[in-house]
Amino acid sequence: MAQISMRIDDNVKRKAEIACEALGMNMTTAINLYLVKLGNEMRIPFEVSVDPFYNPVNQSVLEKSIQQLNAGKGKQHDIIEVD
User: Fold this and answer.
1) 0.85 cut: is pTM over it?
2) 41 lies in a domain?
């Protein structure tokens, strides 16, 4: 058996552990599943894309809006669903 050592952000690790627990597996099993699929299919086994919600410009606008709400300026509104 080979051993892999890697550094990972604490928050990313914590979220992954929670997801693995919910799926009834540990991190080693989840990573092995990923590596087996990667090796068999010769591709990343999921879509890799950028979610525009996390765009730095959008995050800046959201942070500014939150600051304004916290300062008593502006008003809250219902969430607008977009298809």
Assistant:
1) no
2) yes
